[in-house]
Design goal:
With about 90 residues, the protein is an all-alpha fold. It has a domain at about 5-65. The protein has three helices and no strands. It has helices at about 5-15, 20-35, 65.
Amino acid sequence: MSLGQIYEGWKNHILPEEKKKAFIEHVSQERLAICEACEEHSSNKKDYKSLRLDAHCTNCGCTLSAKTKCLTCDCPLKKWLSQPMPEDDGSTT
């Protein structure tokens, strides 16, 4: 994961572009459902101790609320892949 992808995830989490907001939220909800069922989710690790209060992946260390909103990111375990914003079909030609 690059610094640009980390920025993208946090930007989309805190201040998403209005035209992308619904799509980002939809993708994030699908990804979070997958993460919540994963053995690497911080809440699913038996005997896992951390000072972190956020839900995070114990494989890559990412905060899931931001990672799942990075449209160019992949899960390191390949449980979900990047999902670019669909092109607007309303173009004039």
